[in-house]
Write a structure and sequence with these properties.
- The complex is a heterodimer of chains A (566) and B (321).
- Chain A is an alpha+beta fold and 566 residues long.
- Chain A contains 16 helices and 20 strands.
- Helix content of chain A is 35%, strand content 18%.
- The longest helix of chain A has 25 residues, at 488-512.
- Chain A has three domains: 2-228 and 348-404, FAD/NAD(P)-binding domain; 234-342, Flavocytochrome C3, Chain A, domain 1, CATH 3.90.700; 414-534, Fumarate reductase/succinate dehydrogenase flavoprotein-like, C-terminal domain (Methane Monooxygenase Hydroxylase, Chain G, domain 1).
- In chain A, a hairpin with a 5-residue loop joins β19 and β20 (547-553).
- In chain B, a hairpin with a 2-residue loop joins β6 and β7 (108-109).
- In chain B, 45% of the residues are buried.
- In chain B, 43% of the residues lie in helices and 12% in strands.
- Chain B has three domains: 3-108, Beta-grasp domain (Ubiquitin-like (UB roll), Roll); 110-241, Fumarate Reductase Iron-sulfur Protein, Chain B, domain 2; 247-319, no CATH class.
- Chain B has 321 residues and is of the alpha+beta class.
- Chain B has helices spanning 36-47, 81-88, 112-120, 144-151, 161-165, 167-171, 178-188, 199-205, 216-220, 227-240, 247-262, 264-283, 288-292, 307-318, and strands spanning 3-12, 22-31, 66-69, 72-75, 92-96, 103-105, 108-109.
- Classes of the chains: A alpha+beta (566), B alpha+beta (321).
- At the A-B interface, α3, α4 and α10 of A face α1 and α4 of B.
- The structure holds flavin-adenine dinucleotide (FAD), iron/sulfur cluster (SF4) (2 copies) and FE2/S2 (inorganic) cluster.
- Flavin-adenine dinucleotide binds at residues 9-15, 33-36, 41-43, 45-50, 131-132, 154-156, 190-193, 203-204, 211, 242, 244, 345-346, 368-370, 382-386, 389 of chain A.
- Chain B: Its cofactor is [4Fe-4S] cluster; [3Fe-4S] cluster; [2Fe-2S] cluster.
- Chain B: Belongs to the succinate dehydrogenase/fumarate reductase iron-sulfur protein family.
- Chain B: It comes from Thermovibrio guaymasensis.
- Chain B: It catalyses: a menaquinone + succinate = a menaquinol + fumarate.
Chain lengths: 566, 321
């Protein structure tokens, strides 16, 4: 058994910011536990940028940022939390700048800002098209500076609590294969998103499997707004790998097979820079109505054309995008348009928290993409997630330090470690009549069809039933690799089991929300219904193992809901 | 749609179980466009679930998946199978773990040593209170030209490819390492940093002068970072701050001087440039390590024909002056 005052699970931007905040308080034993080496975390893949009303390019204010965010969220975001985030944004940006983050600069030396979808001003601070990468590296460097302790390549398995307060967690050290109990007075989950559920078309890393929400669910902690999954308009045709919104921010066009800039039909004012949910639906509609392209493998797509930006701008502002397009599609954006299609990208829903990151269990926090404060509501704006992770990472880190003062450890039954051992042993001993890759593809297909960009009662029901069927069949999955050292067969199986649990909540939430709002677009209920659904869906697993849905009001301060036009 | 029959010959090893590493072959039909990583995952999914390798982002940004493909470090996720087949004119690809690090299992190596070394070099900004505002209401002014000095070196994804083939790392335990020293340089020229030039001393203490400029780090870097450029510039700074006058620096200078006098540079650097460390080792099986450390005379001292050009090369190597 290991013992720490605070354990942070996850070393992306959210986890690292929380760690830095806790490191200000000397004498606390804090560990960051992560299944990949910290700088591998998916925050590093973020390209486009991070929002803050610095007003360096055009006059701006936190209030305008808040309004755009709330409007982008289709009014489902909690406005007090949004205001807090937007108010803190300029300060955290400067804090990171003071840590050495190499932001791109204006000619007068101030931080540069670019336009992004759904924002009224160029508000997105960036470092070329590697913003998340340099953010992650900078935060990690500062963690080294302040001596943060890391448990690298450890996989968290389950949460342990006494119904009221957190006691710690169990985890497996991937290198040795040993399962360990870790006691802690506070646990901060920062495990990232779960868009890998849409395995075959997603921009996410292989490990974005919703481990945090799945652990929370199993521990009886409620999840919020799970039905909202964002599809990014521009994933590469074959792999779903992301082409940043920055490409449209810099002036890229979307073109259909007729050669039209079709966004004219959907968002005449904002065109390509309308919010993501809208642009994704526009592309899918073009494809459905026969105005898309199709390649010999049957991939359907439209073009993202950057050629008119010119060689210089592309090389300067979007060098990585160019390389990705060349390496993964064989297309040089300087010469040719890039084939793209929407890709599962971001999880608006997550573990239900308040604006301090607190969950229903005292001492258990969730921050970043695995949590839901909520500041993104039904649709996140580009550049707001990197902001969310650092702001709420900071807040939760601070709150955790303060909250454990004077608190003792809660008893941690040894049996909890054994339980996890048993769960894993069963995977080695199963009959293996089902196959991981097969089930994973089936899950991906059924989720994309039933709870993808367009949804309907019938489709969702089918998806939900199918997910439950897959869940049953998954009991027959077998881990064939019996070694203790770096058993990636075991890890991938555990991740898949987590994905199924989370997938079920997405489908259930989608079924219950009988309206269209943000990323949740129901063909049978095409309108937003504020009367019935201006509220958060909450899903909790009861002791009987059944999922239960309830609702929670949305916090509205300054911005009364209005129709969303772009 | 073009498909090809490909044999993947993969080096396998579980030190906990196997006496020695062995190769296992997997035959696959590979469609055009498939990456090495997709091939590995296919093998794991459909043929052999026990195959161990690392991967995460699958878009060349996390640095997890670097392995050797037919002897060269590559990111598995951004390397297309067909490209490699064409390059080597073969239907067989050998996949092995990176060198210079211990194998934990199959293609997974132990990064700890490389990263611990980076940590020793203090790879983080220590803000200069004279430059960085002490309030969060203001940002530091950094002009685009100033950013340019180090921007490229912030692209490093810590994939350890460069470290795995670095000549100096192979022969000098005290060597700082390519990506590690590049990161050190990145801070040395950041106006916001409190140590700035002083950081060259760290590079100095970590034997940056033992870099032999073989440029392999630059050749293999998937992000075009070119650590050797940073190291050369860091050396420049170190001379600028007068580091050449202490005993350690004298030792280094003496080494270079003796190289210049003996013409040994021909033996050491030229084959190295042409063929890499392997070439050098073939030419100089004994004593190379000592020579490069400046602690011994060359066993093969030849009269020098192109002494002039050698001196020029030498000077270029020193960069400064
Ligand atoms: C391709 C791409 C581009 C993006 N671009 C932008 C952008 O330009 N602007 C923007 O604002 N947002 C962007 N986003 C979204 C944003 O990057 C993410 O939402 C954000 O980085 C998530 O950060 P995080 O700290 O919550 O989690 P992550 O960075 O995903 O980190 C999760 C951490 O949890 C650990 N972990 C997970 N499960 C376990 C477990 N079981 N045990 C132990 N450890 C575990 C992982 O090891 C990892 O360290 C982008 C997302 C993608 C996919
Ligand atoms: S140039 Fe120097 S740092 Fe780069 S690989 Fe060669 S010896 Fe190592
Ligand atoms: S410098 Fe290049 S090769 Fe070396 S670790 Fe960084 S990205 Fe990899
Ligand atoms: S998987 Fe991330 S670099 Fe290859």
């Amino acid at each position: 058994m290991l013992t720490y005052d605070i354990v942070i699970v996850g070393a992306g931007g959210g986890g690292l910011y929380a760690a830095l905040e806790t490191s200000r308080c000397k004498g606390l034993r804090v560990a960051v536990l992560t299944k990949v080496y910290p700088t591998r975390s998916h925050t590093g893949a973020a390209q486009g940028g991070i929002n803050a009303a610095l007003g360096n390019v055009a006059p701006d204010s936190p209030e305008k940022h808040a309004y755009d965010t709330v409007k982008g969220s289709d009014f489902l975001a909690d406005q007090d939390a949004v205001e807090l985030m937007c108010e803190m944004a300029p300060k955290v940006i400067r804090e990171m700048e003071h840590m050495g983050l190499p932001f791109s600069r204006l000619s007068d030396g101030r931080i540069a800002q670019r336009p992004f979808g759904g924002a009224s001003f160029p508000r997105t601070c960036y470092a070329a098209d590697k913003t998340g990468h340099v953010m992650l590296q900078t935060l990690y460097e500062q963690c080294i500076r302040f001596g943060v302790e890391f448990l690298n390549e450890w996989f968290a398995l389950s949460l342990v609590h006494n119904g009221e307060r957190i006691a710690g967690l169990t985890a497996v050290n991937l290198r040795t294969g040993s399962i360990v109990g870790i006691r802690a007075r506070a646990v901060i989950l920062a495990t990232g998103g779960h868009a890998r559920i849409y395995w075959k078309r997603t921009s996410n890393a292989l490990g974005n499997t919703g481990d945090g929400p799945a652990m929370a669910l199993r521990a009886g902690v409620p999840l919020k707004d799970m039905e909202f999954v964002q599809f990014h308009p521009t994933g590469l045709r074959r792999t779903g790998i992301l082409v940043t919104e920055g490409a449209r921010g810099e002036g890229g066009y979307l073109i259909n097979a007729k050669g039209e800039r079709f966004m004219e039909r959907y968002a005449p004012e904002k065109m390509e820079l309308a919010p993501r949910d809208l642009v994704s639906r526009a592309i899918e509609t073009e494809i459905m109505e026969g105005r898309g392209f199709e390649d010999e493998e049957g991939n359907k797509f439209v073009y993202l054309d950057l050629r008119h930006l010119g060689r210089k701008k592309i090389l300067e502002r979007l060098p990585q995008i160019r390389e990705l397009a060349i390496d993964f599609e064989g297309v040089d954006p300087i010469e040719e348009p890039i084939p793209v299609r929407p890709t599962a990208h971001y999880s608006m829903g997550g573990i239900d928290t308040d604006k301090f990151g607190r969950t229903s269990i005292k001492g258990l926090y969730a921050v970043g993409e695995c949590g839901c404060v909520s500041v993104h509501g039904a649709n996140r704006l580009g550049g707001n997630s990197l902001l969310d992770i650092v702001v709420f990472g900071k807040i939760a880190g601070k709150d955790a330090v303060e909250s454990i003062e004077g608190l003792d450890f809660v008893s941690f039954p040894e049996s909890k470690v054994k339980d996890e051992g048993e769960r894993i042993k069963a995977l080695f001993n199963s009959d293996g009549s089902e196959k991981l890759s097969q089930l994973r593809n089936e899950l991906s297909d059924v989720m994309s069809e039933g709870v993808g960009i367009f949804r309907s009662e019938e489709g969702i029901r089918r998806a939900l039933n199918k997910v439950r069927e897959i869940k049953e069949r998954a009991k027959k999955l077998k881990v064939y690799d019996t070694e203790l050292t770096f058993n990636t067969n075991l890890q991938q199986t555990l991740e898949f089991l987590n994905m199924i649990e989370v997938a079920e909540t997405i489908a259930l939430g989608a079924l219950e929300r009988k309206e269209s709002r943000g990323a949740h677009s129901r063909t049978d209920y095409p309108k937003r219904d504020d009367e019935k659904f201006l509220k958060h869906s909450i899903i909790r697993k009861g002791d009987d193992g059944e999922l239960r849905v309830s609702w929670k009001p949305v916090v509205i301060t300054k911005f009364p809901p209005e129709e969303r036009k772009y | 749609m073009e498909r090809r029959e490909v044999t993947f010959r993969i080096k396998r090893f579980n030190p906990k179980k196997d006496v020695r590493p062995y190769y296992q072959e997997y035959k696959l039909t590979v469609p055009r466009g498939m990456t090495i990583l997709e091939a590995l995952q296919f093998i794991k999914d459909e043929i052999d679930p026990t195959l161990a390798f690392r991967a995460f982002c699958r878009s060349a940004i996390c640095g997890s998946c670097a392995i050797k493909v037919n002897g060269f470090p590559k990111l598995a996720c951004k390397t297309q199978v067909f490209t490699e087949l064409d390059k080597f004119k073969t239907s067989l690809l050998t996949l092995e773990p990176l060198d210079n690090m211990e194998v934990i299992r199959d293609l997974i190596v132990d990064w700890d040593g490389a990263f611990e070394r980076m940590k020793e070099l203090k790879p983080y900004l220590i803000p200069d209170p004279k430059v960085v505002p002490d309030t969060l209401d203001e940002e530091t002014r950094v002009y685009p030209e100033e950013l340019k000095k180090y921007d490229k070196f912030t692209d490093c994804i810590l994939c350890t490819s460069c470290y795995s083939i670095c000549t100096a790392t192979q022969i000098d335990e005290g060597y700082g390492g390519p990506f590690q020293l590049a990161r050190l340089y990145r801070f040395a020229v950041d106006k916001r940093d409190g140590l700035k030039e002083e950081r060259a001393k760290i590079g100095y203490a970590y034997d940056m002068w033992n870099c032999v400029r073989c440029e392999k780090c630059a050749d293999v870097c998937p992000k075009h970072v070119g650590p050797v450029d940073a190291i050369m510039r860091l050396r420049g700074i170190s001379i600028d701050i007068g580091l050449k006058d202490n005993p350690g620096a004298r030792h280094v200078l003496a080494f270079y001087k003796s190289l210049m006098e003996s013409g040994l540079l021909n033996e050491v650097l030229l084959p190295l440039r042409a063929k890499g460390i392997k070439g050098v080792l073939e030419n100089l099986p004994v004593g190379i390590k000592m020579i490069l450390k400046g602690k011994a005379h060359s066993p093969i001292m030849k009269p020098i024909s192109e002494h002039e050009s050698l001196i020029k090369l030498m000077k270029a190597a020193m960069e400064v002056e």
